[in-house]
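The protein record passed on for reference:
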Amino acid sequence: MGAVRVLRVVLGVVLLLIFPLFALLIARGPVDGAGDEREGYWGPKTANVNWCEADYIFTHYIAEFVNSLSSLSIVASGLYGISAHWTSVECRYLVAFASMVVVGVGSFAFHATLLRPMQLLDEVPMIWGNSVFVYILLTMEDKEGRTRTIEIWAISLMTLLMTVLITLFDTSDQNIFLLCYGSGVVYLVLRSRTLNLKYSSETSMLLMDTATVLYAGAFLLCLLDRNFCSAVRSFQLHALWHIGAELGTVSGLLFWIWIRHEVRAAKARLMGSNPATWWIQVLDKAV
């Protein structure tokens, strides 16, 4: 259990750093690349945010080259998750991996163009993906074959409402998106912690804590990037946010799949791993 303790100490340190940086971001506002006036193939930037990476440095056709490139790792993880779990999990888990593919494509388009429609192609699928994750957790302890018609309609209507609000009213900043997305993440973490306590094993704790540390650590890098852009620009922290959040999300999905195996009293076997979880010993070898 030593690894679990280490992960939780790391998480505690990360959270202690996140809170003041998040408060600073709210109080002062982000310090991103808003003053970067360079234009390229896609013309004037119409997105309501411009990230720290300098624009159109590597090529005339891609505004934020490194951020765009790192977005493709999200696509790759989603495709790998679908391939690895195609015959071993319920459909909703495949939809979750597919949502990562859509988010990655949208993120690439957004960072490549810095256009508002492409920003929506990034942000709205993140909301949709959260909704899929919420449904997974709501149905985690369901018996096979149970239908959740009311819950599906409720989640769908809430997702539609958030999509409309973000599209129509989030024109000058990201506040509505951040509120909608952030509240979803908080629910996912709290519900996952509850499930982990109920179906606790060393493997589930390692998967859960790895996912949490990766996502929180990535968020810390994102906050550093947004608060101290000029000082940290060369570190490409937003690209590292993409990679950390992607690995954290995949680790979270592996955790949910593991718990679902426990609920179904099935042999716990993870068919997909990632660079963040390869070291975790599972009952049947993770590949």
Observations:
- The CA atoms of residues 108 and 240 lie 14 Å apart.
- The radius of gyration is 19 Å.
